[in-house]
Amino acid sequence: MIARLLRTPTCALAACLLPASALLSQPGYTPTPENVAARTWFQDARFGLFVHWGVYSQMGAGEWVMNNRSIRASDYERLPSSFNPTAYDATAWVALAKAAGMKYITITSKHHDGFAMFDSKVSDYTIVKRTPFARDPIRQLVDAAGKEGIKVFFYYSQLDWHHPDYFPLGSTGRQTGRPDGGNFDRYLDYMNGQLKELLTNYGPVGGIWFDGMWDKPEANWRLDETYRLIHQLQPAALIGSNHHVTPIAGEDFQMIEKDLPGQNSAGFNKAEMSTLPLETCETMNGSWGFDITDRNYKSSRDLIRYLVRSAGANANFLLNVGPMPNGTIQPEFVERLRAIGKWLEVNGESVYGTRGGPVSPRPWGVTTRKANKIYVHILDWMDDDLWLPLDAKVRRATVLGGEGIVRVQPGKGGVLLSGIAALKQDDIDTIVVLEIGQ
Question: How far is CA 3 from the centre of its chain?
């Protein structure tokens, strides 16, 4: 993924400040009606599955292992010959995502190691040509997801520790033994060739999730050409880039890594929040790719509350799994995903299709809104009364999926909710539904 160099945030390496030469985006970009509709769908979806999976999974040390252990590209090339994920079952992956209540899947088509997890014709460094598995897992996933109405997005790393034309070298992957020379324009042609394959060979694509531009902030990434290519081939496809700066022309959503919108606990989320759809991504333990020693699992309760806080901040939640090298998703992840799905079966109406509510996120919780309903998510509150600075007439207040009476007292500049302490409190999230109107 992004911030795994010796467990150091990416932006500590690249300053996260891209000069004008890197931001030659798609000038004059106006999203098509199909793209605008896709943005609305994306915001309504609210919850997706992130998948980090590649030949690095065999090392059991995360997706940055090539860089972190200074593995030369010629040595790393031995990994594909033993990568044979015979237990991979795309249908089972999709069924798990659906059981978790997820509406889309974003999968790594190529990570920083440069290895293509799809059937690329512009390269022989692919899972189809270099592994005994010799099949296209991306094709299988797209087909399985399509049957369940789940959209697929492709993560694509602009950074490449393997390709000889990724030159000059960036701030990472400097010990992989690549030639001291290369043609960066030729590399970008190669990258655009692979993107064209992903956008023409797999049917309608949810979007492209870029990462890695931070590695060479001084480079001319020819974004104008790349973004035009994507939007011409699939106008509805959404483009996002994990460059940690304010979105630039041609991008359709803004992502935040391991933080809620407006927060910067990770140290590199310094960009202002835009008016584009938002998405935050997070891990279930401490790793993106499979790490055999990482048992720092977040609880299902904490993950559900993160989902709720994301929705309250008007953002989607992209929750990651790093499948094992045999193609299965480890049971600790499965358990948590199913628990989230069970919670959403009861409380999903307060998340799906909502936007951030009229009361901004507070220490006690968040609000979401849909049509004439405001959902007050009380996550941490012990008092009997809760004051909401709400400029709306509340007709009725009920507890979602629970019991109890909530009294509503209008006042100057807001309303007072009373009787909260007497409610049958939910250990995860007590949700008070306010119906508003004349």
Answer: 14
